[in-house]
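The aim of this short unit is practical: by the end, you should be able to scan a pair of folded records and say something sensible about each. We start with the first protein, listed as its amino acid sequence and then its structure tokens.
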Amino acid sequence: MRTLVATLVVASAILSGTAQVEKQIFIIANNSDGYGVDRCLASGASCGAAVATAYCQARDYVRAASFRKVDREEITGIVPATSAARDEFVAIECLR
């Protein structure tokens, strides 16, 4: 019985001590300067993971969890300013 209680106490402590992962999704225009978004992220090239992680780290996040192209219609809220209505967008999910 004591073993069961001790196990439950330890399990409770471990579960309550688990840090919450903070994540943020950034929507950026395909033509953003400085990161190679158009060449790596939007096209799905092999350099995409490195570019997404660099973008996240520049914003004080640890790494990129995912990235993908998004349609303008998928974006809720304010659409990032771009030079043309036909510009494509990329969503990068960053983890802290």
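Turning to the second protein, read its sequence before its tokens, just as you did above.
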Amino acid sequence: MKNISTVLMVLLSLVAAHAFALDTSETAKIQYLIASVEALEGAKFIRNGSDYNAPAAADHLRLKLKAAGEKVKTAEDFIKYCASKSSITGKPYLMRFADGTTVKSEVYFRNKLKTFATDKP
């Protein structure tokens, strides 16, 4: 019986460790996405018809992430609940780059998420 208890404790520890690692990985992805916006030179983040510079956009995304709390468990959740549209008006967020190209922020973030593994130092 003692051996079974020990095995169960080890298995539970491994499951908990795996869950923690997943959270850490997802947190890193979310921070990567926010940092990618913050670093955009000359870009504008368009929210409810108003333009915001890159640092203001990153601050807004951090605020929405904090407000979302437990609802956001993955980078995909972050994109869906925080980075795609206004929670007040439902209007999609847009990003206008320095070259004038405009895309929905959801498209930008999904494409950026695909590059996470290759952009890491």
